[in-house]
Amino acid sequence: MPGSSLWLLPPPSHPLQSLLTSLITHVSKHYNSPHLFIPHVTLTSEISPSIYSSDPQAWLDALKFPAAKDVEVRFKRLQVGTMFFGKLTISVGKGGVWGIGSVAREVVDGEESVKEWLEENFGPHLSLLYSEIELSHQNLEEMEKVVREAGVNLEGEGEAGGWVGGRVVLVPTDKKIEEWQPIALKDL
């Protein structure tokens, strides 16, 4: 994936942080995928490292994200996709992350193009699997059972159905997946 990405993570103390980490590990092992990653909702990608290269933390700190109370991740449903990074995802309602997604995308496209990008390209989700394999409707049903048994609420209800606020991290996603680690973070 070219450039870097901004990810929204659950608050560190939120129960979903450890639950989703375990779930990603479980699903990856189930499908023999070596790719493990931090549970996150991608806000934007393709950020040129030249934008932040001298001081990633100062760059991230300067971004004017909405207050924590105005950022709400609400799960909607489990989905199977065809893309490597979207093979098995939990879709997230746009409304609660529209504002933070807008701020994040402005660093890539500038203010003029953000609204169009949000309406046409922004598909907030939380990935559970990175893989080249094909998943069927039967796989989806099986994984939906696994996700629910792990304690995740796919209807976005209660503490297990999402979170408010969180932490934004900058990750150089132009490296190998196993090297994807935040180089800057900002708590909302």
TrEMBL record:
<dbReference type="InterPro" id="IPR009097">
    <property type="entry name" value="Cyclic_Pdiesterase"/>
</dbReference>
<dbReference type="Pfam" id="PF07823">
    <property type="entry name" value="CPDase"/>
</dbReference>
<dbReference type="GO" id="GO:0009187">
    <property type="term" value="P:cyclic nucleotide metabolic process"/>
</dbReference>
<dbReference type="InterPro" id="IPR012386">
    <property type="entry name" value="Cyclic-nucl_3Pdiesterase"/>
</dbReference>
<dbReference type="GO" id="GO:0004113">
    <property type="term" value="F:2',3'-cyclic-nucleotide 3'-phosphodiesterase activity"/>
</dbReference>
<protein>
    <submittedName>
        <fullName>2, 3 cyclic phosphodiesterase</fullName>
    </submittedName>
</protein>
